[in-house]
Amino acid sequence: MAAAAVAEAPRSRAVAQPPEGPDDLLLVERVRAGDTEAFGTLARRYSRRALSVAYRVLEHPEDAEDLVQDAFMVALEKIDTFRADRAFAPWFFRILINRALNARKARWVRRTSEIPADAPAGGGTPEREAERAELRERVAAALAVMAEPRRTIVKLYELEGFSGPEIAEILDLATGTVRWHLFHARSALREALGSYAP
After folding, report:
1. How many domains does the chain have?
2. Pairs from 126-134 (Cβ < 8 Å, separation ≥ 24)
3. pLDDT in tens, 65-85
4. Does 18 fall in a domain?
5. Does a structural domain hold residue 164?
6. Considering only CA atoms, which of 151, 161, 160 is closest in space to residue 182?
7. Which of 85, 90, 96 is nearest to 58 (CA)?
8. Is residue 154, in this structure, part of any structural domain at all?
9. Does one domain contain both 69 and 139?
10. Which domain holds residue 80?
11. I need a surface site. Which of 6, 60, 74, 168 has the fewest CB within 10 A?
């Protein structure tokens, strides 16, 4: 699958992994009762994943860090609107993604490559490194012209490891709509990657 080669980044595991310690719903109830440490536990549980997702959308580390802090603050302010019959993670990531997309629309975020040009070589041959650089450039160019929400959906699925139903819940879309966008995004990536596509 061509999309699996996206930036050659390791794919994160899905949000649905069981958390360590108290479950999310118990922590939310404790937060509602005024336990600030319970919210700290939730923030620590999801902050690494949130930073990765924010970076995928904004493509700028400092903006991603600011966004994650902002999203956690908004989640804390809106914790009383969280429905206990749903999972916390998709609810939080919906807040994060919405704010990320709004931030990207509100200002032009300078694009940065995932690997700085002055980074030391990984030990591959010059030909292999040139191929990887060209692959990254082709993927970045294909993603840059992809319309929303398709671009965000393919990044969440291929790079962050969210499932189709999780993305549907995060973006408030039908699962079939997510599948449709993924199909077309993968087709676009295959076309953009040309000879690199399997």
Report:
1. 2
2. 131/196, 132/8, 134/196
3. 999 999 999 999 999 999 988
4. no
5. yes
6. 151
7. 96
8. yes
9. no
10. 24-106
11. 74
pLDDT band for position 18 (cuts 50, 70, 90): very low
pLDDT tens digits for 155-193? 888 888 888 888 888 888 898 999 999 888 888 888 877
Distances (CA, A) of 103 to 10, 17, 61: 26, 29, 14
Q: Is the pTM higher than 0.90?
A: no
**Contacts for 46 with CB less than 8 Å, ≥ 6 apart:** 89, 92, 93
Structure tokens at 5: 């080669």
Report whether the peptide linkage leading into residue 149 is cis, meaning its omega lies within 30 degrees of zero: yes
Residues 143 and 187 in one domain: yes
Cβ within 8 Å of residue 186, ≥6 positions away: 1, 2, 3, 154
70 CB-contact burial (10 Å; exposed 0-12 / middle 13-18 / buried 19+): middle
